[in-house]
Hints:
The chain is an alpha/beta fold. The chain has 12 helices and 29 strands. It has 2 domains: 281 residues, FAD/NAD(P)-binding domain, CATH 3.50.50; 184 residues, FAD/NAD(P)-binding domain, CATH 3.50.50.60.
Amino acid sequence: xxxxxxxxIVGAGISGIGLAVHLSKHCPQRQFDIIERRESFGGTWDFxxxxxxxxxxxxxxxxxxxxxxxKANVLADGASIKGYLLEVLDEYKLKEKIHFQHRxxxxxxxxxxxxxxxxxxxxxxKKQTWIAxxxxxxxxxxxxxxxxxxxxxxxxxxxxxxxxxxxWPADLQYAGKKVVIIGSxxxxxxLVPALAKGGAEHVTMLQRSPTYIAxxxxxxFVYDKMRKVLPEDLAYKLTRARNIGMQRGIxxxxxxxxxxxxxxxxxxxxxxxxxxxxxxxxxxxxNPWDQRLCVVPDGDLFKILRSGQASIETDQxxxxxxxxxxxxxxxxxxxxxxxxxxxxxxxxxxxxxxxxDGKPMDTSxxxxxxxxMVSDVPNMAMIIGYINASWTLKVDIAAEYICxxxxxxxxxxxxxxxxxxxxxxxxxxxxMGSLSSGYIARAADVMPKQGKHAPWNVTNNYLADxxxxxxxxxxxxVLKFEKRTKQSLHKPKLVS
Length: 496
């Protein structure tokens, strides 16, 4: 089966849904289809099922710029976020645009036809060929098929259950059980209070090194009061602007006055621990924002630790045993269940094998023009959200830029656009920045690289990006546009 479409959006998560809305609003003359490998929409917010799954960004900035988050809670659980996305789908009639259980296997750009030839496996495991003018990658940056799973020494000796949060068993019985969570990131600090409240006998968080953790109020009382006296849209915009400013302020402080921010964060934690937990577990060796800053609502993690229902250990694993984990210090952690919250396996474009005229495309050898378009790759863009602010902030401004670009091409009769790369600009850092987090380091061989200067450097600065993308010219000498010549007789080639 061969199908001709206009714009192919790969992924029906936050990025894909947001982009689809912006295309609907700003490019009504264009048609688009959304392809989603899973049975439902929502991406991360449908896929992850572990207890307590929630956002780690405030919802006024995690929501889209075109749809207010109409609840007072600052951080939202996974089900609420998926509910919000469902409202977006319904309001903009996008469900009919989504092809569920369709997976992209390969995509080849045929330069003679100036079209993408995409090999797709449908819900019946049958292959289809779709011919598209544009391919827009909205797949996030991790592998849905597997998480990052280290091989622990003597792992096979453990007689209990070893699970990864990415594949949380729906029938897991943890009530009355001893649980050890390996990790110190957002997932681990979410799981600890959730499992303790869910009836676990005891929860231990085992970390190699501490993480900076900030407590935020669970309810935005200012927003709640504003909504009662101001129109919803205005209250949302004001709250959104305030929180964006606060995010940028904290990040800027981390860059300019790291010692001051470190002192403030550690003092806040110390006050919440109230002498019940040793501060060594919350005193990182690095500066704030050298790795991602984690947040907890109303200090729930610290409350659980103070209560004794959970504990924290900073140590390294010597080996697994039949009944738990032996640490390098000689201490043994008893466990019925071990949760390996060790992070994600980085993947770009959902693992699609992409080629240009049959030549393989290595994304780690490319840069991103304006943080959106893959260098030297025609008619392709991808959306990678912020790592130091809400993911969705980038989705909105990137989608608006893509819409402006498409409209510019339509106005001038162009069929092809290429961001011409400059290898002298190529740096070692990826577009995810220079954070020292493990998953960032693991991205080096997969993710597109940073460039030294604009438009190839990725700033991860929302306010600056918004201004740049809103005013960016397309006749900048980097973007190369072409018009489709007279159609050749042969069909576009699919190269697997």
